[in-house]
Amino acid sequence: MSRPDLSSEKREAFLPVIARAFAEHGYRRATTAKLAEACGVRENVLYRLWPDKKAMFVATIEYMYRLSADAWSNVIAKVGPGQSAAERVLAYSSEHHGELGLYKLIFAGLTETDDPDVQKALRDMYARFHKFIAQQIAVHRDENNGKIPRNVELAAWAFVGLGTVVGIGRELELLGPVQRKNLMREMGALLLSGGD
Amino acid sequence: MSRPDLSSEKREAFLPVIARAFAEHGYRRATTAKLAEACGVRENVLYRLWPDKKAMFVATIEYMYRLSADAWSNVIAKVGPGQSAAERVLAYSSEHHGELGLYKLIFAGLTETDDPDVQKALRDMYARFHKFIAQQIAVHRDENNGKIPRNVELAAWAFVGLGTVVGIGRELELLGPVQRKNLMREMGALLLSGGD
DNA sequence: CGATACTGTAAGTGTTCACTTACTGATCTT
DNA sequence: AAGATCAGTAAGTGAACACTTACAGTATCG
Fold first, then answer.
1. Which of the residues B17, B103, B129, B180 has the least number of beta carbons within 10 Å of its own beta carbon?
2. Cα(B4)–Cα(A114) distance, rounded to whole angstroms?
3. What total of structural domains would you count in chain B?
4. Cβ of A6 < 7 Å from strand D?
5. Would B75 be classed as within a structural domain?
6. CB B140 within 8 A of CB B192
7. Cβ distance B22 to B60 under 8 Å?
8. Is A29 a member of any domain?
9. Predicted confidence (pLDDT) at residue B145 exceeds the cutoff of 70
10. How confident is the model at residue A114, as a pLDDT?
């Protein structure tokens, strides 16, 4: 018995760096050598913290989800002037969407979907996002009597799609910052209201 | 002078097979060996038709776009009972979305966006889809007085996003066929009408 | 026919990359 | 201080893969 195990602390410390590298280069191009260099260590060290590269990627997805979820929770927690929580999240998203690089990560992951672990991580992340958004919409529409109606479920998926296309537009340089913001805000409002 | 050059015919003949392989395995995992095997030839032969793997991929994206565009054109050309062309495309999409495997291809391409040729191919494809959809919406709303208003532009992007999330839902097995159909149909109708 | 190009087969080649092994030094517990 | 485990360095290994080269066969033209 000797020396405490600092593995989990190391993991937490490296994750932001690894996440940045994955978001920047995608899965394949983010070689383990690059990841290690970005972390300032040898590849070896990373392999003592995770069994393989795939595990690093899955951990990154979970980390990025946590980051986004935290940001949204903060926005909701703030007491705003006459806006519903959903409206505040929408306003926040239209300003800061894509800054975390989550979407590049998702696109990278979507091409690795023949790996069951990666697929599961992505599925869980999407499902949680969807659930979160659906609840926000339901509360906003004041329809939150325990059960979320089907329309809200669908609107929440459309919302996720909106976020995705904004991410793609950013990635492919099809949409400028102003367009992205307008798209998120105006179509987001339409989905929030449900056309009423 | 001897023997006519059948290269372009060969390319056309191989493209569907190559497209299928790319859609099935993504970019990296669709190795040139696999592509050749699927085509029933040696890798060599493919390299006489395209300069490199990237060119095969770009050609595949263009091919798949052509396929989708043709399908939509056919739907529009058919004279329907009291439905606008946009409504017919929507109905068609909600039934057949994703069958061509275009979305897997897009996800594969999105992780290769540091390659300018791939990025350009994707950007062109998205831009053309967006333009097409925007025109359909404009005609449907009877606002087609020469210029497409901003709302319609945004709605068209949201539409693209809707298609994308349906593709993701299919890929990650988050959405079943019925859900996908409902999502496309109901949220598509909302975007078509613009909430009026 | 015979020259010229196209078509297909077979076997490399050089590189990249995920992952390993061997070893040295540091640090904590008893 | 001893013993054990952790932390970091350096080099290497084997496999996968994009792409090439060399060559034998064949169809098409003058």
1. B17
2. 42
3. 1
4. yes
5. yes
6. yes
7. yes
8. no
9. no
10. 81
Q: Which residues of A touch B196 (CB under 8 A)?
A: 195
Give the largest Cα separation in chain B, rounded.
Answer: 67
The answer to whether residue B49 is domain-embedded is no
A188: containing domain: 59-193
Distances from the Cα of B9 to the Cα of A2, B15, B42, B49, B126, angstroms: 71, 10, 17, 10, 27
In the 8-state DSSP scheme, what is residue A186? I
- CA–CA separation, A111 and A90 (whole Å): 29
| For residues B32-57, average pLDDT | 94
Q: Are B104 and B18 in contact (CB under 8 A)?
A: no
The phi and psi torsions of B80 (rounded to 5 degrees) equal -105, 170
In a domain, B68, yes or no: yes
Q: Which segment of A4-18, A19-33, B116-130, B179-193 scores lowest on mean pLDDT?
A: A4-18
List the one residue out of B58, B117, B23, B27 whose CA is nearest residue A26. B27
Side-chain-facing half-sphere of B176: CA atoms under 13 Å: 1
- Write out the DSSP string of B40-67: TS-HHHHHHHSSSHHHHHHHHHHHHHHH
pLDDT lower than 70: segments of chain A: 1-5, 143-146
Check if the beta carbon of residue A104 is closer than 8 Å to that of residue A26: yes
Is A26's Cβ below 8 Å from some Cβ in B? yes
Q: Tell me which protein residue sits closest to nucleotide D10, measuring alpha carbon to C1'.
A: A42
The answer to whether B31 faces chain A, any CB pair under 8 Å, is no
